[in-house]
Design a protein that fits this description.
- By secondary structure, the chain is of the alpha/beta class.
- The protein folds into 2 domains: about 60 residues, DNA polymerase, domain 1, CATH 1.10.150.530; about 280 residues, Alpha-Beta Barrel (TIM Barrel), CATH 3.20.20.70.
- It is built from 11 helices and 14 strands.
- It has a 10-stranded mixed β-sheet, covered by helices on one side. A two-stranded parallel ribbon has the order 1-2.
- Helix 1 crosses helix 2, helix 5 crosses helix 6 and helix 7 packs parallel to helix 9.
- The longest helix has 18 residues.
- The two termini are about 30 Å apart.
- The chain binds S-adenosyl-L-homocysteine.
- S-adenosyl-L-homocysteine binds next to strand 10 and strand 12.
Length: about 350
C-alpha cells in the first residue's frame, strides 16, 4: 500500500489513465488531496464509489501523527511528528505580529554534518517523501486552528535536513504548495534554505518565484570548510556564482544567513570581506547569533560584537537583520532540531 499523497498531479494523471477513468478525475483527486486536505477517500463524494473503492485497494491517505508538542515562552511551537516507519521529525510554528511561519523539515537527520548544528551532529537517516513534507503543513494547520484563529502564512524549508539534497520530493512539494489548486500559498511566501548545494540552486531557478536563502556562515573557504564540510565540494565562489545566476533568472533578492560564532567568524575583517564577497548580488543578510546545544564548544558572541558586525554591513549598504532565534528554551531554534534521533 502506498500513500496516495506521494503522487503529484502528473502521476495522478497516469494513475487515472491506468484505471481507464476519465482524465478529469485526476484534477478532482488532486483538489481533494492537496487543496481540500481530505483525510479519507469517503469524503470525495464527486468521485464514483467504484473508483474510490479501487483506489482504496492500492492506496491509503496518511495522517500526520503528532507525538509531542512543546510551546516556547516566546510562542514558538515545536511539533514532533512520528512517521510510519517510527522515525521522528520536527516542525516549528513561529507566530509573529503579522504572519505565522512554519519551519519544515526535508530529511530525517542531515548528511551535511555542519559543526555548529545539532541536527548535523546526529547523522542522516533518510529523505522525506512528498506526503511526509505535506503532512507537516496539515499537522501545523490543524494544530493552530484548534489553538487560535491564526493561519500559517509562510513556509520555510529550514528545519531538519538539506532541502536541495532531496530535490525531487522538495520540488514536488514546492510546486504543490505554490499551486492555487494545491496548498495555495503564494510563491513569495515560500522560502528554501540551503547550505549551498550549487547544482540544486541551478535546478531551482527553473521553478516558480520562491525565495532562496543561502547559509553562508563564513567569509573564507578555510573557515567555511571547517564549519561546513560541504564547502569542500561547493566552495564559496561556486556557491556565489550559482546565486548570481539564480538572481539573473528571476530578479529577486536572495537572503544570506550568517550564524555568528564567537571568535570563529565574528571579526570585523569578516564583516568587511562579506561586503566585498556579496557585491553585485541583490540581497539581505540575516545574522543568527549561535544557538547552543549540549556538547558544542562554540559560543554566541557578546551583544556588542554582534551589533558592531551588523553596523559594518549596514554601512556597506546592506539590509542586515539580527535574527533572534525563536523557541530556544524548547530546542526549537535554528540548528537545535533533532527529531528525537537516538542520543
Ligand atoms: N540545510 C539548510 C536548512 C537547515 S539549517 C541550510 O543549511 O540552510 C537552517 C539554518 O540554521 C541555517 O542557516 C543554519 O546555518 C542555521 N543554524 C544551524 N545551526 C545553528 C545554530 N546552532 N545556531 C544558529 N543557527 C544555526
Amino acid at each position: 500500500m502506498e500513500d496516495i499523497r506521494n503522487l503529484e498531479y502528473r502521476e495522478l494523471k497516469d494513475l487515472v489513465a491506468s484505471f481507464a477513468e476519465k482524465p478529469y478525475r485526476a484534477s478532482q483527486l488532486y483538489l481533494w488531496l492537496f487543496n481540500q486536505r481530505a483525510v479519507s477517500f469517503d469524503e470525495m463524494t464527486d468521485i464514483p464509489k467504484g473508483f474510490r473503492q479501487r483506489l482504496k485497494e492500492r492506496f491509503y491517505i496518511s495522517h500526520p501523527k503528532i507525538a509531542a508538542i512543546e510551546v516556547s515562552r516566546d510562542g514558538a511551537t515545536k511539533l514532533l511528528l512520528e512517521l510510519d516507519d517510527k522515525n521522528y521529525i520536527e516542525s516549528v510554528i513561529i507566530p509573529e505580529e503579522k504572519r505565522t511561519a512554519l519551519c519544515i523539515s526535508s530529511q530525517v537527520g542531515c548528511p551535511l554534518a555542519c559543526k555548529f548544528c545539532m541536527t548535523g551532529s546526529k547523522g542522516f537517516i533518510r529523505n522525506l517523501r512528498l506526503s511526509e513534507i505535506i503532512n507537516q503543513v496539515f499537522a501545523a494547520e490543524r494544530h493552530i486552528q484548534l489553538q487560535s484563529n491564526r493561519k500559517i502564512t509562510n513556509l520555510v524549508l529550514m528545519g531538519m535536513g538539506e532541502p536541495l539534497l532531496n530535490l525531487e520530493e522538495v520540488t514536488k512539494f514546492l510546486n504543490i504548495a505554490a499551486d492555487q489548486s494545491g496548498l495555495a500559498f503564494a510563491p513569495r511566501k515560500i522560502t528554501v534554505s540551503t547550505a549551498g548545494i550549487a547544482p540544486g540552486i541551478e535546478r531551482l531557478s527553473s521553478g516558480a518565484m520562491f525565495n532562496l536563502a543561502v547559509s553562508l556562515n563564513a567569509t573564507t573557504d578555510e573557515v567555511r570548510s571547517r564549519l561546513m564540510p560541504i564547502n569542500k565540494k561547493y566552495p564559496l565562489k561556486v556557491v556565489l556564482d550559482a546565486c548570481r545566476r539564480y538572481q539573473r533568472s528571476r530578479k529577486r533578492a536572495i537572503t544570506f544567513e550568517y550564524v555568528l560564532i564567537k571568535k570563529i567568524n565574528d571579526s570585523l575583517a569578516d564583516a568587511h570581506r562579506l561586503i566585498t564577497m556579496l557585491k553585485g548580488i541583490e540581497c539581505k543578510i540575516n545574522l543568527i547569533p549561535f544557538n547552543t546545544f549540549p556538547g558544542t564548544s562554540f559560543n554566541k558572541p557578546e551583544r556588542g560584537v554582534i551589533l558592531e558586525f551588523q553596523k559594518v554591513l549596514l554601512n556597506g549598504g546592506y539590509a542586515v537583520f539580527i535574527r533572534e532565534s525563536r523557541g530556544d528554551d524548547i530546542s526549537a531554534a535554528c540548528g537545535q532540531l533533532r527529531g528525537k534521533l537516538v542520543d
